[in-house]
Every structure is written in C-alpha cells, then in structure tokens.
Target: Integral membrane protein
Amino acid sequence: MSTACHGVTGEVRAVERSRRGGAALELLVHGVGGATPEKMLNDPRTVRVTGDDTAAVYRRADDVDTDGRGGADGGRGDRPVPEAYVWSNLTSGNGTRALWLLLLPFMVVNLAHWMRPAGAGRTRVVRCYGLLVRLAGLSLTVLLVAAACEVALDLTAWQCAGTRACAERHSWLGFLSPEVSRGGWWSPPGRRLALAALVPGALTGLLWYLSHRTWRAYESQEPLDRTPEPESGPAHTALSRPGFWYGRRLVARLRAAHTAAALLTVAAAVGTAAAREDRRPGGPLALDVLGRALETALVCGALAVVWVVCRRGRSERRLDRRVDAHLVRRLPLAALVLLALTVVYAGWSRPGWRSEGRLPGDATFGAIALAQGAVVLVLAAVAHVLHRSGAGAAPGGRSALRGLGGPAVTMLACALGGVMSGGVSQRVSDWLDGTGTFLDGPPVVLTWQASVIPVLLVVLLALCALLGRRTVRLTRAERAAVAREYGADPGDPARTGRIARARAMATLTDRGPLVVGVTSAATLLLGAGALAGAFGTGRTPVRATEDAPAFVQGAAQTAQALGSWLIGLGFILFVTWGRRAYKDAGARRTIGILWDVGTFWPRAAHPFAPPCYAERAVPDLTWRMATWTRATGGRLVISGHSQGSVLAAAASWQLRPSDRGRVALLTYGSPIERLYGRWFPAHFGPAALAALHRDIDCWRNLYRRTDPIGGPVRLSGDDCGPEVDHEPLADPLAYGRTEEHPLPGPVLGHSDYQADPAFARERERLLARLHPEVPAPRTVPQDGDPP
Model:
C-alpha cells in the first residue's frame, strides 16, 4: 500500500512540515464502556496533566514534563508524546445516574431531532422538522406527568380513598376516606386531590432539578471561540459551526416551557374535577365563575408554552451566551402560582361532593395519543420531502429507512412513554385493588393500549424469527468463506462455526432499520386501533366484546389480561434495573454504555433528556488540540476507538481550517458511517465525511467483519486522497496454532484492535508523517498500484 494520503499534495505538505518543525502528539480517545489511562497508555504509572475527576487528559509519568520545550522533537527522540483522554465518568459515574432511566423516552425523542435527512436548500422545511420534534417532546412531558396524576389523584386519592373497602385495605389512606375518618379535614374530594398533587408536583421538581444540575455539571463548558477563517470548501455539516456544542439558550427556554407545561398539567388535573362539580345545577355561582376563570388561565398558559416551544430552535452559527432570563424565571413561576390558586380553589368546602367513577382521564390520554400520532405522520411527510431534496446532493448515502428514521424513532419514543405511563398506572391499580372489585381502574384508553402489546410482541417475534433464519443461512455461507480465507479445509468444524457465527451476528446491526421500521409501523397501526376501540365503544376490550362470539370474547380477555400483566412486569423490571444500577457499579456502567450511544447529541428537542456528554468532551478535545498546535507549532494524531472516533471527528470539525491540516485521524471499530452516517445523514453523510477527509492531513480506518459496531467509512479515492478504509482485519489472527500464536486466539470482535499487527503498522505510518525533521517517504500512486 502506498504511504501517501494525498499524493502530490501530501508531498508538498511534508516538505512544509520539515521546514516548520514542531513537536508531535498522539491523543488517544477510548470508546463506549470507558477505559483506564493505565490501559490506554500501557503504563501503570500515569499522571493527570489537565482536567478534573469527570474528564481529564493523562500522560505517562515519564512524559509529564515533555511539552515541546526541550527541542523540536519534544524531548522524546523521534517519538510523539502519547496522551489519553478519559471521559467515562461523564456517563457512568455515581449512583444518581440510575435516575436517568426516568429520562429514557426524552432521550429517544431528542435523537429523532438529529436524524433528519440532509435537505439541500430547504431551510424552512428543516425548521418545520425541528418544530415537530419539539412538539412531540412536549407531548411526552405532558404524558408522563399526566400518568403521575392518574396514579396519585385518580387511582389513589379519588377512587381508592373514596371507597370504604379499598381505604380499609390500605390503612395509610384512612385519613383521606370520608367513611373511615368520619369527616376528617382531608376527606373532601377537593382536598384529597390537592394533597395528592404533591406527587406529580414533586416529579416535576425532580425533572427540573436533574435538567438544571446536569447542565451546570456537564454542558456549561464553552467551546473554543475560534477566529473565523475561510473554509477550504463548502460546509457540509453543522458540526463545524462555532455554536453547535453550546445550546445553553435553547435548553434554558425549553426547560422553562416544559416545567410550566408539567405544572399546568397538574393544575388541570386538580381543577377540572372541582370545576365540573361547580357547574352542576344549584352550585355556588362564585366558585363556578372562579373555576371558569382558572380554566381560561390554564388555556392561556398552555398557549404560551406552545408558543415558547415553537418560537425558536437552535442557534449554531455563533456562540450564543445570552439567556432569556425573564422568560426562564417567569414562565415556570406563573405556572406555579396558577397551580397554587387551583389547589386552593379545589380545596374549598363543597357540601355533598362525593368522588364517584373516574376522573376525566380518557379524554386526556386519548387526546395526547391522537396528537402524537398526527405529529408523527406530518413529521414523516416533512422528512420525505427533505430526503428527496437531499438525495441528489449526497450520492452514495445510505439513510436509514429512506430518510424516515427520525419519524420512526419519534414513534418509538411516544410508545415508550405510553408503556411507562400505562405500566405504572396498571401496576398501581392492581396493587390498590387486589380483587379487581373496588375500583374502576385506569382510563379505558390505557387498557386498550395494554391489550395490543401481545399483538405487537407476536409481530416482533415473527421478525426475530425471520432475522434468525437469515443469520443461520448466512452462517452457513460464511463457513465456506472462513475455510477459504484461512486455508482450513476441512479444519476444525467448531472453530470454523464460531468465526462464521461471529461474522453473521455482526451483520444484525445492519438490520437495525428494518427492526425499527417494522416496530414503529406496527406500533402506529395498533395504537390507532386501540384509540378507535377506546373511543368507539367507551368500554374496555372485555366489556366491548360481551355480545361477540365466545372465541372473540376469549381472545379479548386473554389480550387484556396478558397486556396488563406484561405492562406491569415491564414497569417492575424498569424499577428493579434502576435500583440495581443505583447500588451496583457494574450495572451502572452498563447503563452508561446506553448513554454513551444515546446522549452524544445536544439537547435540542427535550430539556429533560439525559445530558449531552459531547458538550463537555468535544470542547475538551478541541481546546487540547488547538492549544497544542499553537503553542508548539506541532502536529498530532488523534486516535479514536468506537464512540471515541466520533468524538475525534467532531473535535476535528471544530478546529480552524489551518489547524485541521495538522491533524491525522486514526479510527478503529468506528460506527461513524455504519451507524451515524445512516441514522444521522445531515451531519455524518457522505458529503460531510468527504469534506473531513479533504481538510485533515490523513485518515485511516480499521475494522473487522466480526465487529457488530465498527465498519468501513466508504470513502473512495478521489481528489481528497486515496481510500480511507484498510482492508478488513483478520479475526482471529490465526485459525489454529502457529509459531507466532502457539495458543488458540479468541474472536475479538469490537475489542483489542491494538492486538492486530496492522494496527501498529498503520499507526506508525501516521506517526511518521508527524516527524518534525524528516518527512515520511512519499510516492505518487500509479495506475495498478494496490490501495
């Protein structure tokens, strides 16, 4: 393979480098799951040279004082200085990370914002896409707070405390029951609702606290405010904009709007029942007028929240340090005051008022589900327009689901929120009403939604069976390929099977769009059917089929019972996982891996999503790279594994164009095209990756066929330089026992790329380009030369 990365251009750059001199740096960035600086630097003695306990740069103890002042070579002869950037504590630190599980639907809808297709010249359509995703995020906040209201206000304070048998069964509710407490102060329905409002109010406060605390801890780091320089070509990704990794203003605005929306939801749940009672004939006129005034104020507050969410999106072209202080403070405060007035209004004495049936939750949950379905359908239409307009501008793109990845993921976020809300409601209802005879239970809409879960599971099982069959067939085909590549015929059947199975299983990652698409489509259709059933009959599936044939009634009973059990089991598993993660560091690290993948992107659609670690990690890397090159006049190799390669690319985009030309990029096990390029085409599409290849000094990418995460970058040789991808690395290195490998080697998959000799060779070739005095030999690729 030719060592030239840019042909004649690379040769000219090498001469300029040899005249310029300067130190060389090798910056290592680990991937998901984290790594220790000792392992990354292969030295038990490491020292933190900059950073804190959350994220820091480490060096070997022998290299602490090596910063380029000792000579052109940095005081290390002809070797660059290695540094390790460790960022694992950004996602898997202390036990409070377990609380982030509450934020899972918010994280998923925030991902959908970044999955938009690359629409060329469609600014208004792009803004419409972002607006729709923000509205979907707002509906999730209202949905989960409404679920908390359903549990605390309807099931507990209204139904159970208002029923003598249920209140006696749960003695801690005795002081709320008018029959058990014999007219105690808290026994009127309005006061019971006012007291129960503390639960969703506390949930709102917790969400606000987590969002505010994580912003201050992780995302308040300012990016490098670089001096503007003309780009060498058109900007093909927003990741190169100065304000991309600093969304302080938008997050503050959205946090205020969502906090206000949550408080208004609680106020509506408390005040609606009291207002309905006051509108009955013979009710007090003053309370009726006050109730109508509060309802009008609630509507005005809801309109103000929607206006704030729709008013402004992200500002990325500059560092926007401003915060709309008047809005951030006054909007939640106004909602809190309105909630307090509603609580006082509901707690006013109303003789003869008794709690019967359910609170009006069917209309609430039905309206939320209908709004979410409509948003997803409109979002799909907008994404289709963007995909068609951008398809010609990005040849070779592999957008997931033909640009519909964002709407599909939005649908999954809404479904996840529905499962969480329905699960907690169903579980609490079963716990309060053990025999199923005391209470009316949760809203009919939630019961119908739970009943379609078994059907959805059947669809998913069929899809898994199809993928399993395909994997088995591919494994058989790979057995012949493994035997041919290793020259192992007949070889060891078990050894050949393990290698072939690892290769076949690694391809399941490429079937992700199919799984997401089928799941989202099935969820949308089944959800529409559940909504139609709930509003068409007004009864649960079992009661709606009372006059149907026996087998239909039996199927309805099975679906309703199994769905209720499954959704309750899912809620229990969710809580158990969170509790285990709070106490177990290993489980917390597993959750951290989930956040590594899901929280790379800034919070643009939902302020209560888990914090974006890249808003700390990317500025860290950018500052380190820029200050090194400017202080020493040197150049560097940034080496990233897995998710670390995505961070390395994002940091390279943030550099000035003149600094990018001094950077060489080594990626291995990288999902930058296989996952990010397919799911986030507007930011990691072919045009963006080709521009990065053109701007930096050199880029090499290593991958294995057995790796389920990493893959090729798919940048072919052109005027930007030869192909980025190395040929697939052998895994395992040897089929059987050899002189170099006397013991059987494992199938490494996504780990230990450094164990392959090709890694050391490619690394040395990149480092040779950084030699301050003697440039690496250059040859112009000739026709017929191997890549």
Observations:
- The radius of gyration is 30 Å.
- The first helix runs from residue 8 to 20.
